[in-house]
Amino acid sequence: MSALQWALLILSVVIVVAVVVISRRDRDADPLPRRAAKPRPADAEAPPSRTSAEPVREQLDIFDDAPVDDIGPAESVSEPRPARRSEPAHDAAPLLRPSIKPVAAEPTSPSAAPASIVDPTLDPLTGKQYDEFGVGRPRRRTAPLLDATPSGADPAAAAPANESTPSDVAPPVSVPAWVRSAPSATPAAAGTAAPLPPPVEQKIVALLIVERNGGVITGNKLHSALAAQGLVFGAKQIYHRLARNESVFAVASLTKPGVLLPAEATQFSTPGLSAFMVLPGPVKPLNALHDMLATTQALARALNAEVYDSKKQPLSSETMRALQADVEAWARAAQV
After folding, report:
1. Radius of gyration of the chain (CA)
2. What is the C-alpha to C-alpha distance for residues 24 and 36, in angstroms, rounded to an integer?
3. Each residue of 304-330: b (16+ CB within 10 Å) or e?
4. 120 lies in which domain range?
5. φ, ψ at 208 (rounded to 5°)
6. Quick one: 240 and 313 in the same domain?
7. Residue 138 has what pLDDT?
């Protein structure tokens, strides 16, 4: 607090102490006679003449307009009376009104019922009761109640929410019989689903193209014959018959690693070629077989070579019919 605030606080305390001392001194010197409450006529033009004790009465009535009783507890006024106008007294100096507000009463516990709190001060000399400032009659105050239970409300309803009571516990939920006996969410059809068909067993058909006189086939002649049959150089560095960008059958060199590089055609030579097909493929099995048989025979004529089956037997009409029957049987078994 600043020096100015301290000065104002000290000055206020001095004024209050002076007012209390002066009022008690006047009260001890001239005790007030008992004054009965008389109704004032409504048509009275002016209040009666004041006595010498009127300044003291004005001082005692500074906080309450009700009549002041010398002895006895405070009485509540049943009927309001018209307010009277106080004329300033010229024979006595006006007293300063205390500037300190009364301290609020401490709140009672929530469980206590509302009650009127009266804190009178008993004067040890005169035996009279005064308020906390020593001036006027005791006043009746009602202490504020915090979290009080409203009138007519059930006290059990005002219990704290965190206290568990038997009513707070939820009753057990009974499950209907039809829910307990309901089947599981898994569809019954899932257990009886048809098994997946077994994977189709692949079939490999291979033919050999060998130079007729046991010589070699040069690279330039070989690549020209392959290109003339519409074969395309591609995956694994060999030539393929393509259908829908998939290999129907392929042609590779008999010598390992079997590659046929066009860039090395001038330095390359091979004793023969191997044509092979893996079924199933992008086209029907019989169509793929007929295409491979026709292509290998055309290459053999262009390269002065002979065509042999996988058993190294010369390809004949009987061999081709047997190979076709074998592919048809496989297609029926594989259902392709």
Report:
1. 63
2. 23
3. ebbbbbeeeeebeeebbeebeeebeeb
4. 14-27+54-71+113-145
5. -115, 140
6. yes
7. 61
Instruction: Report the 10 Å Cβ neighbour count for 137.
Output: 22
Helix pair angle (285-303, 317-334), 10° resolution: 150
Amino acid type, 233: F
- Ramachandran assignment for 245, one of left (phi > 0), alpha (psi -120 to 50 degrees), beta (any other): left
- Percentage helix, strand, coil, to 5, in the chain? 30, 15, 55
- Counting the structural domains of the chain, the total is 2
Contact 107, 75 (CB under 8 A): no
Question: Model's pTM, two decimal places?
Answer: 0.44
Residue 195 belongs to some domain of the structure: no
Q: Does a structural domain hold residue 286?
A: yes
In whole angstroms, give the CA distance from residue 154 to residue 281. Answer: 87
Same domain flag for 209 and 327: yes
In a domain, 262, yes or no: yes
Last residue of a domain, one of 145, 164, 192: 145
Distance CA 48, CA 318 (A): 157
Q: How many CB atoms lie within 10 A of CB 222?
A: 25
Q: Please give the pLDDT value at position 16.
A: 92
- Give the Cα separation of 61 and 53 in Å (integer): 12
132-172 tens-digit pLDDT: 665 566 666 655 555 544 444 454 444 444 444 444 555 55
Do 307 and 224 share a structural domain? yes
CATH of the domain at 316: 3.30.1400.10
* Mode of pairing for the β-strands spanning 121-122 and 116-117: unpaired
- What is the rounded distance in angstroms from the CA atom of residue 239 to the CA atom of residue 223? 9
